[in-house]
Design goal:
It is a single chain. The chain is built from one helix and three strands, in the order H-E-E-E. With 68 residues, the protein is α+β, with helices and mostly antiparallel strands. It has one domain. The chain has a three-stranded antiparallel beta sheet, with no helix packed on it. Strand 2 and strand 3 form a beta hairpin. The longest helix has 25 residues. The termini are far apart.
């Protein structure tokens, strides 16, 4: 079997497992989520300051970011 065929097969398997992981992360209640509050304050123009929260769920492995 050539390399390109094997790559296509592996990518299909990866897509399958990523779909299952996404379903699991959707079902997770994120009860143990860790929050990290971040910001880029102190700019010359205060209207350019921004603040966000980084979320990390150790149970399902999902990581995401939301603006404050």
């Amino acid at each position: 079997m050539d390399i390109a065929t094997r790559r296509i097969q592996y990518e299909a398997r990866i897509d399958h497992w990523e779909g299952l992981l996404s379903e699991l992360q959707t079902e997770c209640p994120h009860q143990n989520v860790k929050k990290e509050y971040k910001g880029s304050g102190g700019n010359y123009d205060p209207s350019a300051d921004s603040y966000w929260i980084n979320f990390d769920c150790p149970d399902c492995g999902k990581r995401w970011q939301e603006d404050q």
